[in-house]
């Protein structure tokens, strides 16, 4: 195992470099950063540096929020917050001359407490709750995304990629519904293998990489690992895919539902807890003959409480899993996307898929949370999963609904579970309600800030005039 990087070891580590790239993660999961000289980096590596708080005061298109929020606003002058590099995140950017790269954490400049809006800090806070018991959390991430070709530029001239081609008119990289195809990747093999190898060199290794069902759709499963590192690697995976795509005249789309009538892009997350020796704490030592349902016969009591916490909390944290207007176009019936509070052993139509014996080894026992889309911030998703699940453990909650039977659809109400929010507006209202489980787990500062950013998104959409409206009403009303 390599020795941990320290401030003292940085001059040797960076001896042949002239600059360093730094990046933080905003509430939309976007990397926000800069290139600094090596001299500057060495001077701020320990104490940190000022970073304009406006990255938490504007949306994904750099428009300040219509209702200004506490973290960053005109009244406080969009003041600087404190950014401190996390030396453990060191890697080199292979498609940018191997420039050194570090992620940063954001802190309040007055109290030096983690900033409420910092997604990395939010996840670490939930992880600390688990660590007080001597446990660790492990996770895996799977992302689907659409790919499009720019017909008016090639790899030698990627400029104007979207300028000359409206995004909704870009042709798919390949046509047809060819999931798990061995032939389709051959059509764009240079891009396909460049993504795979760039991920390996950038320390966000891919475990499985294949086409999904849909025109130009691909899916990557990232290597399983510790939760905080997994969230970082999931964020950086999108960075790799988009950056490598630029050099090949390809744009990648992580929207939850890019095309009407076609499957959406999921961002499934797998979660398990382990003890100090690496033993899976969700696995039961012996099958329970008195289990309330056969589905949980091999699931430990701790695992059952964790599942209960997930199911109880899911409706209240939906904006963390489905953060955009478009997210809810994916979460509709009949498209292999979960729409209710539901669970089941190896059930891919449920919100929570339990993976355990007899279909998996005890050490692989875990939950796959299938509600998140590829448009979600992985740090918020894993914070929500860990926070809700651990709340179930602490409160010893009981599983609130029976498992879905194989073949049972989740579209409906009654014994098939509570229907999840159908829109960002509905989800945000529940997330921000005074008795929300989200407030209990994450605190008022975070809920008020992130909820406020989602309210902004809803308001912008409410005021938008869409192509659908023009096509439907231009001649008919």
From TrEMBL:
Cross-referenced Gene3D superfamilies: Glutamine synthetase, N-terminal domain (3.10.20.70), Glutamine synthetase/guanido kinase, catalytic domain (3.30.590.10)
Family that this chain belongs to = Belongs to the glutamine synthetase family.
Organism equals: Metarhizium rileyi (strain RCEF 4871)
Q: What is the lineage of its organism?
A: Eukaryota, Fungi, Dikarya, Ascomycota, Pezizomycotina
- Name this protein carries in UniProt: Glutamine synthetase
Please name the InterPro entries in this protein's record: Gln_synt_N_sf, Gln_synth/guanido_kin_cat_dom, Gln_synth_cat_dom
Q: Name one Pfam family in it.
A: Gln-synt_C
One biological process GO term for this chain? glutamine biosynthetic process
Specify the GS catalytic domain's residue ranges: 119-477
SUPFAM superfamilies in the record: Glutamine synthetase, N-terminal domain, Glutamine synthetase/guanido kinase
GO MF annotation: an example? glutamine synthetase activity
Entry-linked PANTHER family: GAMMA-GLUTAMYLPUTRESCINE SYNTHETASE (PTHR43785), TYPE-1 GLUTAMINE SYNTHETASE 2 (PTHR43785:SF12)
Lineage: superkingdom: Eukaryota
Which key words are in the record?
A: ATP-binding, Ligase, Nucleotide-binding
